[in-house]
Structure formats: C-alpha cells, structure tokens
Design goal:
CATH class of the largest domain in chain A: Alpha Beta
Shape of chain A: globular
Structural class of chain A: alpha+beta
Largest sheet of chain A: 10 strands, mixed
Oligomer: homodimer
Radius of gyration of chain A: 19 Å
Order of helices and strands of chain A: EHEEHEEEHEHEEHHE
Helix content of chain A: 10-25%
CATH architecture of the largest domain in chain A: 2-Layer Sandwich
Number of strands of chain A: 10
Chain lengths: ~260, ~260
C-alpha cells in the first residue's frame, strides 16, 4: 500500500470565453492547463488532471468532473480553498473529494448532460452575450420539439459528427452509435430557452451540429421530416451548420 | 422651425466590466464615448449624448436613458440597428425614439431604480462573477430588511455620500436630502438576492455606501439601531465600506 496514490475528484465550473478549451496546449490558456499548473505548485508534483471529456474553445461548464493522483497529504478542503484562491474567477472548483482508486473521470462516466442556451429577444442583453446564442429569426418551438423527439433514443449520429475527430481507442466497437436518453426544450422566459441533452456520450461537436440543424428546423428551412432523414442519412454533409460554442454548457457528468 | 433639431431618446444597456464608466474621458473607453463616436460617424455631426446620470467604472445598466440632438434625417430604427451593428456587444441600444424638444434625459427624470446583486453561496459561479458581489459570510436577511426600512423615505443621506462629489448646480437647494420611495430585498434563489432601490435621485456612491453598510448589518457587525444612528449622524465617516461596483445595476430611469 506504500506506493498507493490518493485519487482526488474535482467538480469544476468555468466560463470558457477566454480559454482555448479544456485540453492543455503549449502556448494557449486552457482550463486543464491552469488547474494542473496550480495543482503542481501546491503538491510540488507533476500533476496530470484527467477530465471527463474535452470541451472546445468558448464552451462553458457548470459541472465538469476531473480526477488526479497525488502522494500529497493536502486535505481535500485545502485543495478546494487553495485552488479557488489561486485560479482566476473564470474557473471555480465546486468540490474536491477523495475518490476510490478505480475512479476515472472519463471511463467511469455513464453519461453527460449538456445544455445549449438560446436568446430570442430582439436585442441581446449585454449580460447574456457571452453565455447564450442570439437568434433573431422567428423560431417554431413546436417544430424544434419534434426534432428533439426524433433524436431521442439510440441512433448512429454520423450526420452530426465532425469528421476525423473520433477517438477510436475509446469508442471502438460502437462507431457513431450513441443513446440520447432525454432531449428537452426548457423555456426559462419568453425570450430565453435551452435545449437539454442527456446521453451516454457525445461525438465531437455532435450537440453543436444538432443544435445548428434544429435552428434550421425552427426557422422552417428544414422540416422535422427532413431532420429525420438527415439523421437517417448518416452523412455529415446533409446536416446544418455547427452552432457557436458560446451557447453550450456542460452541466453534469453522470456516474 | 428650420433650425429646430430632432431630439432622440435612447434606452441603453451595458456590461460595465471593461469600461471606465459612463462619462466620456480622453484616453479611456467609456459608454458615452463609444456611443457618441458611432453617432457622430452615422450623422457626420459632432454629437453630444446626454445621459440621465453617470455610472462609475464597472457599474452595469439595463435601462440607462440618454438623449441627443441632431439635424440628421436618419430614422430611429436605423439609429437602433446601426448603433447595435457597430457597438461592441457589451453595449446595446434597446430602443431609439423621437422625444419632445423639451425632453432631457437628466432633468426630466423624476427618479431612478437601481439593483445591487449579491451571491451568498460558498463558491462564486464563473457565470455570475462579473455581475454579482460574492459574500461568503453568513448574512442575517431579516436585519438587512430592517435596514432597508430605516432608509426608506426622505432623509439627509450625508452619511452615505462620497465627499466632494455633489454637483451643486443641479442639486442646489436640497443638499443631501433625497427620497427613497422603495427599498426591497428580492430573493431570486437560496443563493442569490438583490437589494432594489427606487428613489428620486441618488448621491454619488450612495447606493454602494448603503449596501456596504447593510452588509455589515447582515454580518452582525452593525445592529439595525446603529444603522439608524449612522443615517442620523449625517457624517460619512460613520458608515461602512463602499460595496464594489460590479454588483450594481442601473435598472430604470423614471420619467
């Protein structure tokens, strides 16, 4: 047991606006890079922070989960306080706790919940500009809900996958097949709604591609029937544009 | 009538984070400066934008009002669209309309409504960090409400006025006497509340000084009775600290 390292689980929130996404990069500011830097300072170890997934530049999170191994004796609450004292306010550690040795933020996850926020009033309030997508075209909410019903369940989501981006090692065997357990349109006010996706896993840019295409459905450019045909085509070239990163929130990782 | 200029009224929202306040300054980015710059470009006139008041660096607005005179024939909706197309997303024009020649954003106003937002959860969510004050100390909401009752009505607010800042020309005659028509604590969730102030006018930093002192009341450092004595003392040195700018929102100007 002497060589057994502690395994610490972090729940993390961030405003992705000023970061080049989650994943560490040489000359860019990233969430993983910032947290690893301060964890390494605290522990005087070379800490590797394993996230449950990667979020792209500009994507936000309320509930990213990550784990790291350490020989340090620093208490979990001291990790929480120390990191929050050193990190910029755009990154917050919501919790830090001891996890089982076998816990892996990515491989132990059984799913994730994302939310894509859309503001449909005429003028985009400055307060919401970095965290919601502004759509000024009239949207048929009923048609979007039909689209959400169509993608719910187990499907091959090739039509909504960005090419060349799948990690074959991890997802080997199931290709582009994923299960969306629940896809809901939540109306927060007359001018603000969000699309919530709960699934066992998501392909790269899958949600942003689905949302971009659902906005076309809402605008009447694509019918719900055509949307069903796009899904069935398993061909990325049939789908609509990729919705911008700044409306997307990783809400929860499910274990 | 040939020389009569049009009078245009704007309702403006802004995220004050990256600006040195409302008022135009030589080498700083300000709300007034940005809007005047683009109005002058559109009209090819030297436009002076008169705001209903000045907000300090970092203070936000949902409903600032301003007016300007112009000989231009540009329609109000074109001003709205043009400005919103050129201005940064941190500043939005919510409406532009023709006003009576006598309308003056500042002198016609009969009052203003401000809101100060306070987040009391343990960890400040990144999304709220620039728009709410984070207070981690336990706050006695009941005591703060008592304080709000105490300042409601017509009082000499010298204790909450920043020295040397009053505009004698405008407020001559009434000194530091102001009327707060309504002061409410609004609970938005378990972790977020705001203090709303509706009054006929506010001295410089008055709300931030009141809020800073009310937080002391909430923390139990100052009793409601002591708060009443601070108000009665008419002496700035008796009050608590000035609350930070970033929790403050100008919500409405009343006419």
């Amino acid at each position: 047991m002497l060589n057994e390292l502690r395994n610490i689980k972090l729940v993390i929130g961030y405003d992705g606006t000023d970061f080049s996404g989650w994943q560490r990069q040489e000359n860019s500011r990233t969430i993983q890079g910032e947290i690893e830097y301060f964890l390494s300072q605290m522990t005087r170890e070379d800490i590797l922070l394993n996230g449950a997934g990667r979020t792209d530049a500009g994507v936000h999170a309320d509930g990213m989960v990550a784990h790291f191994h350490t020989a340090s004796a620093i208490g979990c609450d001291d990790f929480l306080r120390g990191l929050n004292a050193m990190l910029p306010g755009a990154i917050r550690i919501f919790s830090a706790e001891e996890a089982a040795p076998s816990f892996h933020a990515r491989f132990s996850a059984i799913g994730k919940e994302y939310q894509y926020e859309i503001y449909i009033g005429r003028i985009h309030p400055p307060r919401l500009r970095l965290h919601t997508l502004h759509v000024t075209a009239a949207l048929d909410i009923h048609a979007i809900r039909k689209g959400l019903t169509i993608i719910t369940g187990t499907h091959d989501f090739s039509s909504f996958e960005n090419s060349g981006s799948r990690d074959k090692n991890v997802w080997s065997g199931r290709g582009a097949v994923r299960t969306i357990r629940q896809a809901l349109l939540l109306e927060h006010s007359i001018e603000l709604f969000s699309l919530q996706f709960n699934g066992d896993g998501f392909l790269r840019n899958m949600i942003r591609n689905i949302v971009g295409t659902l906005i076309e459905v809402g605008r009447g450019k694509t019918t719900p029937q055509e949307f069903a045909a796009i899904l069935a085509a398993k061909d990325r070239t049939t789908a609509g544009p990729t919705a911008p990163a700044h409306g997307l929130w990783l809400k929860k990782v499910l274990y």
